[in-house]
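Predict the 3D structure for this chain.
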Amino acid sequence: MNFKDLIEDDLKTFVNPDEFGEPAIIEGESVIVVPDADKMKERQLAKGLEGELHNEELLFYVEKSQLSFYPRPDNTAVIDGVKWRITDVQEDAGLFTITVELISG
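Done. Predicted structure below.
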């Protein structure tokens, strides 16, 4: 087993619904996501936004291989029937970190 295989095994554990993962529907696709409210708070604090948020935001991880599209900032995505605007996307070791904000109206 090489290092890449070990990372892939760790990733499978991380997104496992019996561990941290939760089922979600993103753009009609059934996927497993790992929400991270703590990381979202860290980012808000770093931006000095604590207590000033007017938009609901989410940060979650999803395996790149589970999505048939590449999420891009400023695009919209329907997640569990709710329309969100993608504000940030990071990719690392086959995993997307996606931040979205609720589109009101």
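The first helix runs from residue 3 to 14.
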